[in-house]
């Protein structure tokens, strides 16, 4: 059984990807220092898959501690690297913490691929690397604009670090650029555990609907879009997860000829913020309490994916539509309300 190391395995996309990897016959080990997560989702992974996944509570910014994980797991075939800080607004307030954490951890991991001869590296990237694109939908070849935030810059720099390292021949890599991951696993045994007040749209919607926060704002309704609100490509987290399994399959089958290959992970459908709210209201039956507020600095106006490459190259078939995304997100929020063992209130400090 091929063993995959997943960094950030206790996190939202990491946990969903571990489920998909296990369901597709892979053995998985996680490294997550729980600075932005808790081990709670490991229980959900075990509930879905029957497998207990070991997590090494290690800070990847410590090279020695990272090496120790590889010394104990000599049979790792591939690495999927999720672990990073990812709050756009926070990155503007704390840029050095973002550059140090997101880049030092990546460099340490890449040094380990050389030290332990691990040839396959999948990187969690983001549509944020496109900045505010001149034309949409964006393809993988769309020129990158300056990132709108230090978070986005760490993704652009991360891709460059990987490209330069892959050219030395030590690894081959796949960069997966997520659009807006939302929703929860259909079993509702795992989902998103936003830390403190949610910055992202869908957790803000569900927490407002359940009364955890009194109301929410739509950030800007004067944009040049069909209804004035920003346009995004919302993609179900389980579809994102399966794309990672397909990327690992693709690499282990030797199909990736280039040192680095890039794939957009979006549905290919643009949805506005107001349309997303309407879809939520339709599936939940809840009239959402929101106000129309000012623009949020740093927001991209409109972006959605051309996903042809992932569909044809990886054989990626999208399973979930916008209503499924909202339905599972809402079911997860209801689960959080009744299941007191799951909590999101933990205060997390930057290192
Ligand atoms: C979406 C839209 C907001 C909250 C970021 C990262 C991206 C990815 C996903 C990691 C925007 C609007 C939001 C609210 C609102 N991260 N909004 N009211 O900024 O598109 O992308 O998260 O993979 O890399 O950049 O996501 O959900 O924060 O915002 O109106 O209370 O919803 O203004 O237009 P974003 P988001």
UniProtKB/TrEMBL annotation:
Q: In its keyword annotation, does this UniProt entry include NAD? A: yes
Q: Which EC numbers does the record give? A: 5.1.3.2
The main enzyme category here is: isomerase
What InterPro entries does the entry give?
A: Epimerase_deHydtase, NAD(P)-bd_dom_sf, UDP_G4E
* Gene3D superfamilies xref list: NAD(P)-binding Rossmann-like Domain (3.40.50.720), UDP-galactose 4-epimerase, domain 1 (3.90.25.10)
Where does this protein have coiled-coil stretches? none
Q: Which residues form the NAD-dependent epimerase/dehydratase domain?
A: 4-266
Catalytic activity line of the entry: UDP-alpha-D-glucose = UDP-alpha-D-galactose
* Family classification: Belongs to the NAD(P)-dependent epimerase/dehydratase family.
Q: How does it assemble?
A: Homodimer.
The protein here is known as UDP-glucose 4-epimerase
Organism whose genome encodes this protein: Dinghuibacter silviterrae
């Amino acid at each position: 059984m091929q063993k995959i190391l997943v960094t950030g395995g206790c996190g939202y996309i990491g946990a969903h990807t571990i489920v998909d990897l296990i369901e597709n016959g892979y053995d998985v080990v996680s490294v997550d220092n729980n600075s932005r997560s808790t081990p709670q989702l490991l229980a959900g992974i075990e509930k879905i898959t029957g497998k207990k996944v070991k997590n090494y509570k290690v800070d990847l910014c410590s090279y020695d501690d990272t090496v120790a994980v590889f010394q104990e797991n000599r049979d790792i075939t591939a690495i999927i690297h999720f672990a990073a800080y990812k709050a756009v607004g926070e990155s503007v307030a704390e840029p050095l913490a973002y550059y140090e954490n997101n880049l030092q951890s990546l460099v340490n991991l890449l040094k380990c691929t050389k030290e332990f001869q691990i040839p396959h590296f999948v990187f969690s990237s983001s549509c944020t690397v496109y900045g505010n694109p001149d034309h949409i939908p964006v393809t993988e070849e769309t020129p990158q604009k300056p990132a709108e935030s230090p978070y986005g810059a760490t993704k652009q720099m991360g891709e460059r670090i990987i490209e330069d390292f892959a050219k030395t021949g030590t690894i081959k890599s796949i960069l997966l650029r997520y659009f807006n991951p939302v929703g929860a696993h259909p079993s509702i045994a795992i989902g998103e555990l936003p830390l403190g007040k949610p910055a992202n749209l869908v957790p803000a919607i569900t927490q407002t609907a359940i009364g955890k926060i009194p109301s929410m704002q739509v950030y800007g309704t004067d944009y040049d879009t069909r209804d004035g609100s920003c346009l995004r490509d919302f993609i179900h987290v389980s579809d994102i997860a399966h794309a990672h399994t397909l990327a690992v399959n693709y690499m282990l089958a030797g199909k990736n000829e280039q040192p680095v290959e890039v794939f957009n992970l979006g549905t290919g459908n643009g949805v506005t913020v107001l349309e997303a709210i309407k879809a939520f209201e339709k599936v939940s039956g809840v009239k959402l309490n929101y106000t129309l507020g000012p623009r949020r600095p740093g927001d991209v106006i409109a972006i959605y994916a051309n996903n042809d490459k992932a569909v044809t190259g990886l054989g990626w078939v999208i399973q979930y539509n916008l209503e499924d995304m909202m339905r599972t997100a809402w079911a997860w929020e209801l689960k959080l309300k009744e299941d007191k063992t799951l909590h999101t209130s933990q205060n997390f400090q930057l290192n």
